[in-house]
Structure formats: structure tokens, C-alpha cells
Design goal:
Helices cover 78% and strands 0% of the residues. By secondary structure, it is mostly helical. The longest helix is centred in the N-terminal third of the chain and has 33 residues.
Length: 105
């Protein structure tokens, strides 16, 4: 495989990743709703952490630094949140604001 072929393959993967972002963001919002409710889902928090972590790394690898930075900030905003507990108002507002920024990035 030539360097040109590798470059084309990378661009294809990058395009696929970008195309998958709206669905990934819907998934993050859905997981967040399972956490920010009367009876928080402890499993949802673990999955959410893993998914924003993966998004941050993948976005960086695909040359999307703003998406990577925002996903990393979203992951960081979950630090200290215990499984099965509700997020506070400030944490919830910060996380949702970061998701909104990701939507626009």
C-alpha cells in the first residue's frame, strides 16, 4: 500500500468519524439523562466516562483538536462524581454546556 493510499484511507476514516459524531453526541446525552435523574444509573456513569474518553482520544487522532479538547473537558467534569449519585446543579450545567459546544464543534 502506498503513502497515497494510506492518506486516502485515513481521510475516509476521518470522514466516517466526523459523520458518526451526531449519533455519539445523542448517545452521550442519553447516558447523561440516565445519571441526572431521581434514581441515577451507576452503569451509565461508567459508560459515559469511557465514551467521552474515547471521543477525546479519537478526535485528537483524526485531527479534530477542538472536539478532543471539549470531550476531555467533559470527561474531566465527571471527576469526583460517584456512581449512583446525582450530579449537582453546577456540574450538570457545565456538562450540558460542554455537550452543546461539542454539537457546534
Amino acid at each position: 500500500m502506498s503513502w497515497q493510499d494510506l492518506g486516502k484511507e485515513f481521510q475516509k476514516l476521518r470522514t466516517e468519524f466526523r459523520g458518526s459524531l451526531p449519533a455519539k453526541l445523542r448517545r452521550l446525552r442519553s447516558l447523561w439523562e440516565r445519571i441526572d435523574c431521581e434514581e441515577p444509573d451507576a452503569d451509565a456513569l461508567e459508560i459515559l466516562r469511557r465514551e467521552v474518553h474515547t471521543m477525546a482520544g479519537s478526535a485528537g487522532s483524526f485531527g479534530l483538536p477542538q472536539v478532543s479538547k471539549l470531550a476531555a473537558a467533559a470527561e474531566e467534569s465527571l471527576d469526583g462524581l460517584k456512581e449512583g449519585s446525582r450530579p449537582g446543579i453546577k456540574r450538570a450545567a457545565k456538562f450540558v454546556a460542554l455537550l452543546d459546544k461539542l454539537d457546534k464543534a
